[in-house]
């Protein structure tokens, strides 16, 4: 087939909530080329995390397929070999830098155990190399998570992904909990990693400014469906779909008026007939 | 620099802290002495456990008998020391047994949910509604009295309690994103629970088990007191209390008071030390 690293086709997921169903992901298809970076934007509740979690196997899709480097991933991995095969292809950085590291382990132990699990060469030298790659010092290897700042923890989480040498890295709101200057550093780091390792990124965020820093293309989601997709610059500067326009105009900035945003939103909801 | 900031940040009043330190050190010292005495009983006890001396019955503490003697002139101090091993190992065995079952069941229930969770919830409901001692007496009625049956029966009563506690801890732990991170790495459920989740539960679990140890010690002593647990000629402490009872009416309180005080002192000391241990373990890896 094509040379895409990640191919998602017809992905579908509904959650049972009370008596009804919430369609969190409705017929979502997209591809990411090798070394590419795809943004996934949309307001809260639009299904971004659901897609991210289906990609890494934390949720099982109702329908659809996910191919990484031409090989299909299962919907529910059974058995150690299948689990590790998937993990080797696709890794994830979570939003919460405080909770996504095991508080009992030092950074070095955390990285070491990830590599050992996948039968990769581990040890102090490799740990130091990974720490260097994410802009941490060798001495941070001996730190426990509580001794690190939010930005440093997120760097460790990124190093933990890199340790497994995946071909795709999914980042779900990975910089959303960090303050702006730290955000900028992590975004620069992600661009560096992309350039040097060729790992493809799926970058999930509700923050359009952040997405424009690290992605080539972007998907705009609303209520589980893709509204618009295209090159990030084009979509952000000249959105075509009315939801994209709404989302972009909702961003706080100079001349931003919350009342105006609410009005536009009401108009949009009327337009799509909800 | 860093030591200065930690000492000012840890804002517990210095006096309160000192008091707790004293309580901790005294309790720890006491437990060490008790355990040492239990281990070295044949060498440190001045008399044999069952050395009868009719010329010296019901003596008050002092003189040749440090803590006095009972109705047949047995040295209470020596009996206490000889009985320490059984009195301490009993609750330890009961707790070990209950913990293995409780932690396993609680973790599985939290991880799998489903019918295991439902069955656990029903069993714990029944256990909580049912007086624990009644259940234990029932088991003993079926399987016969004796220390081993008492331990197993109590372990059966404690296991669901530990399981329920473990389940609630494990559920909270499993909601943390690092658990998802391990799954994304490809770590399997069993390994994840055994290697990562359960170790992260140890500080609160340990604090709880320490409380249960105290309860277990008292429950086992109670069973022995009732005649269901340790049997003569053992000098298990609960049994000592029971044997001493006959003298109370005639004003001889020491044979009852001595083992009773030993039970109370050990329970208190274990609680003080255990809480501190749990705190320390907690601060070792909690933020
Ligand atoms: N485990 C779940 N159970 C029930 N509903 C869920 C679950 N996960 C997500 N949802 C619902 O699916 C929708 C999409 O959620 P999510 O993917 O988290 O959105 P986003 O990440 O874009 O904020 C929301 O309506 C959310 O309430
Ligand atoms: Mg989300």
Describe the structure.
The complex is a heterodimer of chains A (274) and B (287). Chain A is globular and about 60 Å long. Chain A has a six-stranded mixed sheet, with helices on both faces. A four-stranded antiparallel sheet of chain A has the order 2-1-4-5, covered by helices on one side. In chain A, 43% of the residues are buried. Chain A is built from ten helices and ten strands. Chain A is an alpha/beta fold. Chain B has helices spanning 2-9, 14-39, 41-44, 76-112, 114-129, 132-143, 147-174, 177-185, 189-225, 237-248, 254-285. Chain B has a single domain, classed as MetI-like fold (Orthogonal Bundle). Helices cover 77% and strands 0% of the residues of chain B. Residues 1-11 of chain B have low confidence and may be disordered. Chain B is mostly helical. The relative contact order of chain B is 0.13. Classes of the chains: A alpha/beta (274), B mainly alpha (287). Adenosine-5'-diphosphate binds next to strand 1, strand 2 and helix 1 of chain A.
Computed structural class of chain B: mainly alpha
Strand order of the largest sheet of chain A: 6-7-8-3-9-10
Structure ligands: adenosine-5'-diphosphate, magnesium ion
Number of helices of chain B: 11
CATH H-level superfamily title of the largest domain in chain A = P-loop containing nucleotide triphosphate hydrolases
Query: What would you call the shape of chain B?
Result: elongated
Full CATH superfamily name of chain B: MetI-like
Task: Calculate Rg of chain A over CA atoms.
Answer: 19 Å
Mean pLDDT of chain B: 87
User: What is the correct CATH architecture of the largest domain in chain A?
Assistant: 3-Layer(aba) Sandwich
> What's the N-to-C terminus distance of chain A?
39 Å
Rg of chain B, nearest Å: 23 Å
Using the coordinates shown, work out and report the CATH topology of chain B.
MetI-like fold
User: What assembly state would you assign to the polypeptide chains in this entry?
Assistant: heterodimer
Termini separation of chain B: 20 Å
Helix-strand sequence of chain B:
HHHHHHHHHHH
Strand content of chain A: 15-25%
One letter per element, helices H and strands E, the order of chain A comes to EEEHEEHEHHHEHEHEEHHH
